[in-house]
Structures are given as structure tokens and as C-alpha cells.
Amino acid sequence: MFALRISPFSRPVRRVFVSRQGCTVVIAGWAASTARILDKYARLYENEGIETQIIPVGIPRLWFSPFGKAAAYKTLEKIPSNEEVIFHIFSGSSTAILPYLLDYITNNKRNLKLVGTVFDSCPVEFSSKSGLAAVKILVEQNHMNPIVAKGINIAGRTVDWLIGQSINERARLSWMNKELGRVPHLYIYSRNDVVVSVDFIQFWIKKQKERNVDVTSHLWDESAHVRHFQKNPELYKKQIGDFIEKMNISAR
Q1: Do residues 163 and 94 touch, judged by C-beta distance below 8 A?
Q2: What is the 3 state secondary structure string of the chain?
Q3: Dihedral angle of Cα 170, 172, 175, 176, to the nearest 10 degrees
């Protein structure tokens, strides 16, 4: 069985696997993530016979709702009606992309059915402080020019001051969305994360458990923000694989 995976910033790729037709994973990345970087996560699911859609995330999609909304809607519109959908959400996409994915699932009449959500290094609120930490990491890893980083930090503080509160209010409402509350959650996070605190993620894990969400969480000790797979690929694959089995996605 062949499956077609399309991302907004890459050409279609055809892969062969034993197919679980009727299920698609939407992978929403972190700041400066590209289709090439996110492809390794897509392969985790494609090797299990599940199709994928990738949403690379840059600054416009993180900061400005029209860009995030357009990316979320465009991605879900590629998925055939009546399919099952899994969200795999990284970092700031929990604030910038997830609310619009959920809005589409909740209000669109194409009968897409959410069956599970993975939170990697999130949820995290929009703030200039967390943004500064994320940009610092990108500079240290040579993924961003220091001069560009300085400009982004200044702009980020301005955006935070102007609309940060409204961005976070929308995000918090989405994290308590009814559709999201009906499906299992997997949280993968770390004590070594300098962008989002363990306490913040555990606060939201507790909130989900209080409304009887089926929560699985894995607290890592040494991996950095969105670097769990890089730190220990085999453990990450196992945690994702176990979650796929927990969702009991049926072959069609």
C-alpha cells in the first residue's frame, strides 16, 4: 500500500508500508522547524502504516494568528473526510497551531475524528521569556544568526506586550477543548528544558486528569527542549509506539 505525505514546504514523498488506512497524524513543529527536520518524526508513524501531514513552523505562524490558522486549516483540508486524526504537537505549536486544528475538528462537518494527541515539550504559553530561551538555543545550535536573533527578541517583546495575553487566553481555552478531552494524551517532557518548566506542564497534566482524560506522561531527565528523539531515539520510538497501540487504531 502506498501513502502520500504532503507538507507545505516539501514535495510529495511516496513510501511503502502495511497501511492503517483512514488515520493521519498531523505533526506541528517548533520555531524554525523545517519539513526536513520533522520528516524523522513522520517516519515513526509511517513505519506503523499511518499517513502523515507536516506543518513546519516559523515566526509568522507562531506570532500571528492568520498564518497559524491558515496552516492548520490547509493541512486538515488535505485529509479525506471521515478519517481518524492524531495530533503530534511540539513546543509553541501548542499555542499557535493547536487551537486552530481543534477549531477545525470541532466546527467542520467533514467528520474528521480526533483519536489522540502527543505533546512534546509542551504545552507552553507565548512569552518573550520563553521565546528568548528558544532563540538562544537556536543560536547555540547554529540554526539562527545572532543578529537575526537579536531582532527577533526585540520584536518578540513587542508582540508579547501587544497581544501576548490574548494569544495565551485562546491557547488555554483550546487545551480544555471538549474534543481534546475525549482522547488519550501523551506528554513527553524534560527536567532539562529551559523553555518550559516541568511545573507548568505538570499543572496541565493534572488539569487534564481532573476531567478524566486518559493521560500517559514520560518525564525525561537530561534531554533539552524538543530534543528527546535526538537524545534517545529508541526510547522515543518505544513511547510513541506504545501510545499508538494504546489508541488501538484499526487497520482498514
Answers
A1: no
A2: CEEEEEECCEEEEEEECCCCCCEEEEEEEEECECHHHHHHHHHHHHCCCCEEEEEEECHHHHHCHHHHHHHHHHHHHCCCCCCEEEEEEECCHHHHCHHHHHHHHHHCCCCCEEEEEEEECCCCCCCHHHHHHHHHHHHHCCCCCHHHHHHHHHHHHHHHHHHHHHHHHHHHHHHCCHHHHCCCEEEEEECCCCCCCHHHHHHHHHHHHHCCCCEEEEEECCCCCCCHHHHCHHHHHHHHHHHHHHHCCCCC
A3: -100
Using only C-alpha atoms, what is the Rg of the chain?
Answer: 17
Amino acid type, 210: E
Would you give per-residue pLDDT tens digits along the chain (252 residues)? 334 343 443 333 333 334 466 899 999 999 888 999 999 999 999 998 999 999 998 766 665 678 899 999 999 999 999 999 999 999 999 999 999 999 999 998 789 999 999 999 999 987 545 655 555 565 566 666 676 656 655 555 555 545 567 778 888 999 999 999 999 999 999 999 989 999 999 999 999 999 999 999 999 999 999 999 999 999 999 999 999 998 867 544
What is the spatial distance between Cα 142 and Cα 206, in angstroms, rounded to a whole number? 36
CATH level 3 topology of 2-124+178-247: Rossmann fold (3.40.50)
**The three three-digit cell numbers of residue 4, written as one number:** 502520500
